[in-house]
Every structure is written in structure tokens, then in C-alpha cells.
Protein: 5-oxoprolinase subunit PxpB
Amino acid sequence: MAIPPARRLLRSGFESDWHWLGSRPCRWRRSLSIRCLDGGESCLVVDLGDAIDLAVNRQVRALGLALERARVRGVLEAVPTYRSLAIYYDPLTIDRNALGQRVGTLYDSLDDQDDQTPRIVEIPTVYGGKYGPDLEFVARHSGLSRDEVVRLHSEPLYHVYMLGFMAGFPYLGDLAEQLTVPRLSTPRLKVPAGSVGIGGRQTGIYPVESPGGWRIIGRTSIRLFDPSAEAPTLLLPGDKVRFVQREPHEYESEQRGRL
Structure:
């Protein structure tokens, strides 16, 4: 009888360590679990949690760094998300079961020292007016003044959980709960590059002009994505971001300096 892919993984050497969670294999370590899911014939998704959580995201990133350092033959790319790591591989070089075993071994070898000291990046931001057309809506919806919204948004040091949606777009979690607002019912067709938006308990920055449904409260002159640069994206998962308020004339001067 053919063995389903998930059971083949269980029977390939993990019998004593792997347990079942629903129909999928999982392994417990500390307070977190790891689940290997099939992402296609050349992608293994390693799931470490089911919520936006800083501890989970740190483990995701640490596992990605450990995989990079291990230089596992056949692994092409590892992409971290909020709570999982998508590992793209060449199935002609390494099969899914062998990769799952290697990932399990690497995960067991992680320790707290795998979390590197983060970079702190300041993002100069002009709030409101034509640069932040939804600031007034956010203030009304939250029952706050405009200045209180700006203070609450610019006060925290945000963790970059992941990049996604488009090249260089940082997902910054743990936005102040008071600033949680619904997204636009109809997304804008064009959101200018550098726009600072709010989506649920997240905030982020549009690196290039694009459509978008987040509430736009400000804009920065900082370029987040440059495909010609050696490091095309300014921010990376694990970095820390602080928004620093600027006046409109300062933003406009910075923009002129870029031209």
C-alpha cells in the first residue's frame, strides 16, 4: 500500500521523536512545535506556530540562518514569514524526507545565541496632509487627536517580522492596539513609493508605487528597494525600525537631495 507523503516522513527515522498533530507530523521543542508541510514538489514549509508572536518569529529566523550556515546541498532558498520558513530545494539533489530530517536536526541544535543583535534603522516620516491622507480618518476612528496618533505610531521600536507583498515591503508587527483600523473597502490603484500605512495590528512602508489597501498616514523619502544596489532591500527580517517625525519642508528637501 502506498504511504502518504507525511507518513513517509514519519517513518523515515523520526518514529521516536515525531508525533502527530492532526494528520501532520510535528515535533515539540521547548514551548514551540515544528510541523513540516508539503509546499509542492520542490518546497518544504516548516511551520513553527499559529500566531503573530515575536518568540516564534525569532525561531523562524534562527532556523533560516542555521540552514544558510549549514549549506545543505540542494537547498536553493529559505524564505521566512511571520511563523514559518518556506524552503525551496532541488528534488533531484535532495529529497523531502532527507531535507525534513536535516531541518529537524538543525532545529534541535538552535540555542538562544542564534538570535543576532538586530540593526536599528530610523525612518524619517512626514505625517498627514497630502503625504498621509488617512491620518485624519485614523484619528477619528480611534478617538484620538492627530498628534496622539503620530506619537503612538512613532514611539515604538518595531520588529521586522518578514518581507513580502512586493520586494522590500517590511511587515512591522505590534502596532499600538488603539491604532487598529479597518483597511480600505476599495484599495487605491496607486500608492506612492515611501508611503507609510496601517493594516490591522501591522504597519509597513510601500517601497515602490503600487496598488494598496492599507490606511496611509505618512511618507518617507528613504528608498527601501533599489534593484541595482548590492543589497537591494534596505530592511531585512529581524531588523528594528523606528519612525522619526519630519516636517513637510524637511521631507521635500530630502526628496530634492535624492534627485
Summary: The chain is about 25% helix and 30% strand. The radius of gyration is 21 Å. The longest helix spans residues 54-70.
